[in-house]
Design goal:
By secondary structure, this protein is α+β, with helices and mostly antiparallel strands. The chain folds into 3 domains: 287 residues, no CATH class; 118 residues, no CATH class; 59 residues, Orthogonal Bundle (Arc Repressor Mutant, subunit A), CATH 1.10.10.410. The strands form 4 sheets. Strands 2-6-7-10-1-11-12-13-14 form a 9-stranded mixed β-sheet. The longest helix has 23 residues. It starts with a strand and ends with a helix. The relative contact order is 0.09. The structure holds adenosine-5'-diphosphate, magnesium ion and zinc ion (ZN). Adenosine-5'-diphosphate (ADP) binds next to β1, β10 and β11.
């Protein structure tokens, strides 16, 4: 039996987060009143001249550098002709050859294996407007056109057909999303259409060198839909090939409700677009110093930060992955560590508190970490108190709640709430004596060598003192006392 292999290649559009559009001064703000962010240029009025946004060029060059592309310092823009109502001038300004960036590489890890994904090109182009076919879930018998999105800067990234599974594709997309976010060149949210992905899928017998006929699935709007669409389409093509049929080259759409790919149109040839050099824009000519300055602006990227966190702070893979999931979280963590003398001591506990208590609060109040009422410095102080054994976790949680409400440092709250640790030995000895009498079994077990039994005895004292007894003192006194038994 022949073994069939799936091959996948991606075309990704990423909206650049410049304040203004790529060829005019209109705002790129999302969700504004339809057609309010428009002017004579982005509504394609005859006789208007596009003016290139320098920030958009900077954004794509930074992205290209971060993804190991070759930057083509001399390149031009091209007109891609086609008729569609969302682009009234009947052509899109884009790039053909050479694109601003070519031959990139990104290493992904999928199934614990490293794999290099090669990327053909990363180029600049303008977005189209948006056609609206329904209002309030009601299908219209006409279409509305919103040109707010028209002429917003896009980066188009085209990969080589280097993927063999949906897992690899998802890993790659997550990695791209994260890098782009760290570079702060796009919000990259798929829900808002700021990152859109077309997927090319083909299937061929492993022994064949030649790849199979590809089908393109357009504009799928979430990672989970991408995964489903790929898996469905691979299965569909395998079924055709197994029964000696032929896969036709076509463009399909993913129907997320019915969970099937549906034919949209037969793939038109690239030649149909009749590309020619854009006469209204001068060729791009990037200087070495322009590129050097951008190199300096590239921050440490998430993969490196993660390895550093694991190595320096002995964090688990899981915890480190959480911390780097957003640049703002990683920044908060590192800033917090910088406020204490010996960061290594609190690093792990701090990471835990950020990923559990703090993230739960931020999520439930829909606040992002940079606006957290608990500053990184104050959280570091609280965690230091826990790690040094000065306060128990129970007390720490109480203080944490107050810190959240009042945005105050822990020492002020401790003072005001009269949360007084009991460190007075006589008081603690009394409670320990009672614990020994009332936890007869645990004491016996401890004496017979079961160290874990101590937890129950300490637990009794902590409960008795409503969590106020200094755990270090309790531990010391109990050990002393039990030795003598
Ligand atoms: P075109 O210029 O016709 O759009 P490209 O060569 O630029 O074609 O490829 C477009 C996309 O399709 C790329 O992401 C590429 O990786 C992918 N691709 C090309 N051939 C195949 C194939 N046989 N199977 C799967 N993907 C493919
Ligand atoms: Mg193409
Ligand atoms: Zn405009």
């Amino acid at each position: 039996m022949t073994i069939l292999e799936a091959t996948l290649g991606l075309e990704i559009h990423i909206q650049i987060n410049t304040k203004s559009k790529i060829f005019c001064k209109c705002s790129t703000k999302f969700g504004e009143k339809p057609n309010s962010n428009t002017c004579v240029i982005c509504t394609s009025q005859p006789g208007t001249i596009p003016l290139l946004n320098k920030k958009a060029v900077e954004a794509i060059v930074k992205t290209g550098l971060a993804l190991n592309f070759t930057i083509n310092k001399q390149c031009i823009f091209a007109r891609k002709q086609y008729f569609y109502p969302d682009i009234p001038k009947n052509y899109q300004i884009t790039q053909l050859d050479p694109p601003i960036c070519s031959n990139g590489k990104l290493i992904i890890i999928s199934n614990k294996q490293k794999k290099i994904i090669n990327m053909k090109r990363l180029h600049l182009e303008e977005d189209a407007g948006k056609l609206i076919h329904e209002v309030n879930n009601k299908k219209l018998n006409y279409s509305l056109l919103d040109l707010n999105r028209a002429s917003i800067g896009l980066m188009e990234l085209v990969t080589e057909p280097d993927f063999n599974s949906s897992e690899e594709v998802i890993e790659f997309l997550k990695e791209i999303k994260s890098i782009v976010e760290y570079l702060n060149v796009s919000e990259c949210s798929m829900e808002e259409g700021k990152m859109r992905c077309d997927i090319n899928v083909s299937v061929h017998p492993v022994e064949d060198k030649k790849l199979g006929t590809r089908v393109e699935i357009k504009n799928i709007n979430s990672l989970s839909n991408i995964k489903d669409a790929i898996e469905y389409e691979i299965k569909r093509q395998k079924t055709i090939i197994v029964s000696n049929g032929k896969v036709i080259q076509e463009t399909m759409l993913w129907d997320a409700k019915e969970c099937v790919t549906k034919s949209m149109r037969f793939k038109e040839d690239t030649l149909d677009y009749r590309y020619f050099p854009e006469p209204d824009l001068v060729p791009l000519n990037l200087s070495n110093s322009f590129i050097r300055n951008l190199v300096k602006e590239i921050p440490e990227l998430p993969k490196r930060i993660k390895l550093r966190f694991i190595k320096n702070y002995n964090l688990s893979e899981h915890l480190a992955t959480y911390l780097i999931s957003k640049k703002t979280i990683a920044d908060y963590y590192e800033k917090a560590l910088k406020t204490v003398k010996n960061p290594k001591i609190i690093a792990k506990t701090l990471a835990n508190w950020i990923s559990t208590e703090l993230s739960a609060k931020l999520n439930s109040f829909k606040i992002s970490i940079e606006d957290s009422p608990i500053t990184c410095k104050n959280l570091a102080k609280l965690v230091s108190l826990i790690v040094s054994g000065s306060i128990t976790r129970i007390i720490a949680k109480e203080i944490f709640e107050e810190m959240w409400k009042r945005s105050q440092p822990p020492e002020i709250i401790i003072k005001r709430k009269k949360i007084q640790q009991i460190s007075d030995e006589l008081t603690i000895i009394k409670m320990c004596e009672e614990a020994i009498i009332k936890n007869h079994n645990a004491v016996k077990e401890f004496i017979s060598g079961k160290n874990k039994a101590m937890d129950a005895i300490i637990g009794f004292v902590m409960k008795k003192s409503k969590g106020l007894a200094n755990p270090l003192v309790v531990n010391k006194i109990l050990l002393n006392r039990l030795k003598k038994l």
